[in-house]
Amino acid sequence: MGTNGSTMLDPLRQGLPPLDPATVSDAASCTLSARLEGVREARQFARTTLDRWELTELADDIALVVSELVTNALRHALPQPAPEDGPDESPVRLHLMRWAGRLMCAVRDPSDASPVTRAEDFGAECGRGLFLVDSFSESWGWHPLAGTLHGKMVWALFRV
């Protein structure tokens, strides 16, 4: 797990890495289906965006991490059954930002609950998502949304 300012009370709550908006060279985001096809949409959007940004060498790692973050949002952050999608009404969004040798992927969801890591069990069929995010990214964390937005943003940072 990353070490960006974690606290004893909530070790996963890390906030975003320092980011000067003036240094962002590229940014893209998309609304995802609130159903499991949202995972496929997220991977495809990430790969297409990275190709456009000429960062195809990162595509496999980032597609894996995006898949895990979106899967967690769909499984744990949405009310069940999932809400019906309307134009731009899905509560799950994927954001990609690139700046000064870094790339961040972030998934916004409507839940205020902290992501929960489980003990590593390599034989388990599920529950390894955040372990994979931690393994493939430079660092990761989450923060609650502010203002009129409800929910949280879970992010992963990569070196470009």
TrEMBL record:
<dbReference type="Pfam" id="PF13581">
    <property type="entry name" value="HATPase_c_2"/>
</dbReference>
<dbReference type="InterPro" id="IPR050267">
    <property type="entry name" value="Anti-sigma-factor_SerPK"/>
</dbReference>
<protein>
    <submittedName>
        <fullName>ATP-binding protein</fullName>
    </submittedName>
</protein>
<keyword id="KW-0067">ATP-binding</keyword>
<feature type="domain" description="Histidine kinase/HSP90-like ATPase">
    <location>
        <begin position="32"/>
        <end position="140"/>
    </location>
</feature>
<dbReference type="InterPro" id="IPR003594">
    <property type="entry name" value="HATPase_dom"/>
</dbReference>
<keyword id="KW-0418">Kinase</keyword>
<keyword id="KW-0723">Serine/threonine-protein kinase</keyword>
<dbReference type="GO" id="GO:0005524">
    <property type="term" value="F:ATP binding"/>
</dbReference>
<keyword id="KW-0808">Transferase</keyword>
<dbReference type="InterPro" id="IPR036890">
    <property type="entry name" value="HATPase_C_sf"/>
</dbReference>
<keyword id="KW-0547">Nucleotide-binding</keyword>
